[in-house]
Design goal:
CATH topology: Four Helix Bundle (Hemerythrin (Met), subunit A)
Number of strands: 0
Number of helices: 5
Oligomer: single chain
Distance between the termini: 58 Å
Shape: elongated
Largest sheet: none
Order of helices and strands: HHHHH
CATH architecture: Up-down Bundle
CATH class: Mainly Alpha
Structural class: mainly alpha
């Protein structure tokens, strides 16, 4: 019998705090980088676009429904808060665990 080695808990830290599918973004960037390396417009743009389109269709049609079924409300809430594949640039530069100050005193302490 083969053990299920999938994570038992939803990972929401690291890159996953900024985008839901960081590996897919990397896979889509690979042919773009190779196209630049080989000076190929076709590989940089068209192949990247084809791979990106296929991956998005697969993620939306297959992977995300599986994750909703597996993690339930936790994944639905995560999906609501975290962008699909392109990060919010303002969020990337901030620590997602940072909380806004609760009082004037905390604001003053952070200035020092």
């Amino acid at each position: 019998m083969i053990e299920d080695d999938r994570p038992k808990k939803l990972v929401k830290t690291g890159l996953y705090a900024h985008i839901r599918h960081p590996m897919t973004l990397g896979y889509c960037m690979l042919p773009a980088g190779m196209g630049l390396l080989f000076r190929s417009i076709g590989m940089s743009f068209f192949i990247t676009l084809i791979i990106f389109t296929i991956m998005i269709i697969w993620l939306k049609a297959v992977e995300e429904p599986r994750l909703v079924k597996r993690f339930g409300l936790e994944y639905i809430e995560y999906r609501r808060k975290v962008p699909f594949i392109i990060p919010y640039l303002g969020r990337v530069w901030k620590n997602p665990d940072d909380k806004p100050p609760q009082s004037e005193r905390e604001v003053d302490e952070n200035r020092e």
